[in-house]
Amino acid sequence: MHQMSTSDSDVDIGFGWLWGRYVGFELRAHHRPQPTRACRPYALIENVVTHADHRNKGYGKAILADALSHAWASGCYKVMLLTGKKDEATLRFYESASFVADEKWGFVAKPPPA
Questions:
Q1: Are 87 and 60 in contact (CB under 8 A)?
Q2: What pairing do the DSSP bridges indicate for beta strands 40-46 and 79-81?
Q3: How is the chain split into domains, by residue range?
Q4: At what angle do helices 88-96 and 59-73 cross, to 10 degrees?
Q5: Pairwise CA distance, residues 63 & 14, whole Å
Q6: What are the strands, taking DSSP E only, across 1-114?
Q7: Deepest of 53, 65, 83, 100, by most Cβ within 10 A of its Cβ?
Q8: What is the DSSP-derived secondary structure letter of residue 54?
């Protein structure tokens, strides 16, 4: 699998390709300094998507492992992953990729309708 990444100071975006075909993932990792941790950053991952034709082949887990490796190399003290999925298969996938589901709760606020 070939991974192409582009980054700026805040966001890393990757696209996975396999033999010239789009595997289909999007990963956004935001690095934020945390004042309570001696200003060490943490990373936030969201929008992890693998095309249905390429699931259960290890690509998604490899992508997440690479993101974790990048976060640890960048000095992050933790990585949080947000997902809107609630099905057991997706949650087991994230747990198998080293994420723990019961450590924190995420809440989302959206702007009121215009």
A1: no
A2: parallel
A3: 2-96
A4: 50
A5: 9
A6: 2-7, 11-18, 21-22, 28-34, 40-46, 79-81
A7: 83
A8: G
The CA dihedral of 48, 52, 57, 63, to the nearest 10 degrees, is -20
For residue 21, the model assigns a pLDDT of 56
Pick the CATH number of 2-96 from 3.40.630.30, 3.20.20.10, 3.40.50.1110, 3.40.1360.10: 3.40.630.30
By DSSP bridging, strand 2-7 and strand 28-34 are: unpaired
Low pLDDT (below 70) residues in the chain: 1-34
Q: What is the DSSP code (8-state) at residue 65? A: H
pLDDT of residue 96: 94
Cβ-based neighbour number of residue 27 at 10 Å: 23
Q: By C-alpha distance, which of 112, 114, 113, 29 is closest to 78?
A: 29
Q: How many CB atoms lie within 10 A of CB 37?
A: 12
pLDDT of the residue at 5: 44
pLDDT at 19: 56
Predicted TM-score of the model (pTM): 0.72
